Amino acid sequence: MRSRFSFSWIISLFLFVVLPVMADTVSFISIGTFTAPSFAVGSLTVTGSSDLHFDPTFGLGVVGGADFPSINYISEGEFVTFTFSSLVSNVLILPAACGGGTPATCGESSVTAFGAGGILLGTQTVFPYPSWGVPLNVNGIFGNQLLSSVQWTVLDAAQRPAHTFVTMDNIDFTPVPEPNTAILLGVGLALCSLCIRGRARVRLQGARHNLSAAYWIPTLFGRC
To answer: Which domains does the chain have, with CATH numbers?
Structure first.
């Protein structure tokens, strides 16, 4: 009974505590080719300055702007916004392609982050090219604060010899349970623990009573 209770306890902890805080990954290059005003999957909603475009080669882009034929980039002045249904940590954004500006930078972008209650945390200029293949740690550049949404904007390339553009490969993030949710989960697990222990105690007492009766009744009648 003890081992069964321990196993149930571990499974409950995994289902109700561990699973809600596992990292989510949304890949924009593996969802086909289509255009839409917005895109929602799980706890993530993506919008943009115009309709979103998804492509298996270039990932997430925005329709319009200074795009090349048949390729919808996030070009200068355009943006995409990632909005989460709850606060998140470990937000990692990986560009799929970039261009424009000088070869060393692919131009500049800005990342604007919002925290709890939609409070503006600030805006930082980022350079997609120097860390190519390494995702941008958004929480890291904003003091590891929890985020409710992130906006990526490609900056104006008017002073550069070529258009600046970026496309998005994927985004990773880890949902953080709200304090009230965590408290409710803790209370629920505690009640489950008490119920299981109570049932185990009742069964054990019943088994002892039955064992006592099963032993003493035959013995008593055997002596008669």
So the answer is: 22-177 (2.60.120)
